Amino acid sequence: MFNYILRRLAYALPILLGVNIITFALFFVVITPNDMARLHLGDKHITQEQIQQWKHERGYDKPLFINKDSQGFDMVKETIFYQKSISLFFLDFGTSDADRRDINYDISQRMWPSLAIAVPTFIVGLLVNITMAMLLVFFRGTHIDTLGVVLTVILMSISSLFYIIAGQFLMSKLWHLAPISGYELGFDAWRFLILPVVIGVISGMGAGTRWYRSIFLEEINRDYVRTARAKGVPELKVLFKHVLQNAMIPILTGVVVVIPALFMGNLIMETFFAIPGLGSYTIEAIQSHDFSIVRSMVFLGSVLYIIGLIITDISYTWVDPRVRLS
Question: CA distances (Å), 145 to each of 69, 152, 210, 217, 236, in order?
């Protein structure tokens, strides 16, 4: 198992480095430090001295890749790429370009509201989607299955913005069951989280249920299922013990894409509900052209996604030990 994990980590490092280089190129080749300074200073009559001062205060006055004025390792160290990009590998995100806030501190504070929304939405949504998919498979070929498929297609066809607006109107403005937006720390936070969680579960039911249904339908026609039925195993036990267990690998594959969202937050949901999480943090950084925050969030998302892939690979070995040999 240890060697298996080491191999997966060895595969992940080049991917992370490639993502880091591409992100750096997008921010510092397409958009130069001079452009960043003009965007933040926002004055049509700014002088070159003001631009240089802004770049010097934030470390953007150095060469991009090679500092010819230095010697030895400082030729690489005294560059924007090393100080702004390589430092991300050590989870040193630096300070924001706009107000010089510590990005690490902001992330440590804003990750909890994001987790408070994402974790319940993920767990409840997963249970609901799998249960609904198993129910449709149990009644496959009947009017219940047909009606369920039609409903999932309808749910998939509706934009997530509709669910948010409709949920705010019905549950907050019309029925007064939950606050329309905002957030409070402590135990009272659940009042502000219940509506986003419910909307998140409902908006994901269509795609999730339909996807799990297709997985279970593929498994239910295999030989081991027919063998279990021939031995007299009840249909419910066949579904929840045999089919569900053997469908875990594709289920785990789909779950991994959700892991970064558990930490990074939902951009649209947090913005509409004024939740101070990492999703709204990223949106605010984009609107204010704060490239340090955006770059840090892109890198953090890549790290979390790769960690999710590694966790998924490890979980494969629990579901099917033959994976260790691959």
Answer: 71, 11, 11, 12, 16
Long-range Cβ contact pairs of 71-79 (< 8 A, separation 24 or more): none
CA distance 320 to 6: 19
Alpha carbons 165 and 111: distance in angstroms, whole number: 25
Amino acid at 46: I
Domain ranges for the chain: 2-90, 106-325
Alpha-carbon distance of 271 to 280, in angstroms, equals 5
Architecture category of domain 106-325 in CATH: Orthogonal Bundle (1.10)
Owner of token pair 């950084």: 285
Residue 257 φ then ψ, to 5° = -70, -15
* Residue 217, both tokens: 């339908």
DSSP-assigned letter for residue 184 = -
pTM: 0.83
Alpha helices in the chain (DSSP H): 2-25, 33-41, 48-57, 74-77, 80-84, 103-138, 143-157, 160-167, 189-220, 223-230, 235-237, 244-246, 248-256, 259-264, 267-272, 278-287, 291-319
Collect the ranges in the chain with pLDDT lower than 70: 1, 4, 43-44, 257, 319-326
Nearest to 137 by CA among 205, 190, 207, 210: 210
Q: How far apart are CA 293 and CA 272, in angstroms?
A: 20
For 126-149, the pLDDT digits (tens) are 999 999 999 999 999 899 999 999
SS3 of 134, please? helix
